[in-house]
Amino acid sequence: MYLAKGQQMSSPNRIEINRANSQHSTGPTSPEGKQRSSLNALRHGLTGQLVVMPTEDLAAYQRHLESFTSEYHPKGATEAHLVQALADASWRLNRVAILEANLLTLAAAREPNPLNDAPGHVQDALAIVAVLESQSKTLSNLSLHSQRLSRQFERTVAQLRDLQKIRTAQENHDLNDLLDIVEMYEEKGETYNASEDGFVFTQTQINRGIRARKRLAEEAFESAA
Predict the structure, then answer these.
(1) How does 55-69 read in b/e, with b if 16+ C-beta sit within 10 Å?
(2) Which among 92, 121, 126, 91 has a CA at the least distance from the CA of 107?
(3) Are 163 and 169 a contacting pair, CB within 8 Å?
(4) Is the pTM of this model over 0.70?
């Protein structure tokens, strides 16, 4: 449909054309394209690496990550990155354990049974032995991968704890400085605005610090009396 210069498309015609255009999907249509699209949704937001496999539950991973976030309460980009790394290493460690169990189970089911008349527990034991022999290389690779992830997890935990220890010490130092200033202003009957000097503590944190100081002062007075 062609329009003369300066002529506007009527509202009904525009609606019909928009509706027709909306029927043309802008997303992937081929199986390969859909697979790539599904993988993109599971990629790590910081590194682009695939964290959750297509066969795994993305919601379960998100709950897994939230559990680490709730435990460590990261502040700032660096701590958040380290907590993400912890969750990823732990997730991969769990995957290794599952892969190992699945490998043993599947291989044992495929192994020929040399003693059909033996008791069930004997047959199971023999099947496991046969699997350990036939899959020794694969199991060794899984073990090495697990050890690497465990070391990575331990290093990341140590790094995160050291970083949070330094941050906490700095926060305590800054809070003590702030409380000194607040007390000085209170003695003069004035109110101090902490944000004007770049302090980022909430009023709840300040009040908690004031109560802690008063409690320590009372305990010191009672001990001296």
Answers:
(1) eeeeeebeebbeebe
(2) 126
(3) no
(4) no
Q: How far is CA 28 from the centre of its chain?
A: 28
Euclidean distance between CA atoms 47 and 84, whole angstroms: 11
13 contacts 3 by C-beta, under 8 angstroms: no
Which among 70, 46, 82, 89 has a CA at the least distance from the CA of 160? 82
Could you read off the pLDDT of 83-121 as tens digits, one per residue? Answer: 999 999 999 898 888 878 777 776 656 555 555 665 555
The distance from CA 123 to its chain's CA centroid, rounded to whole angstroms, is: 42
In the chain, where the domains are located: 44-224
Please report how many Cα atoms fall inside a 13 Å half-sphere around the Cα of residue 141, on the Cβ side.
5
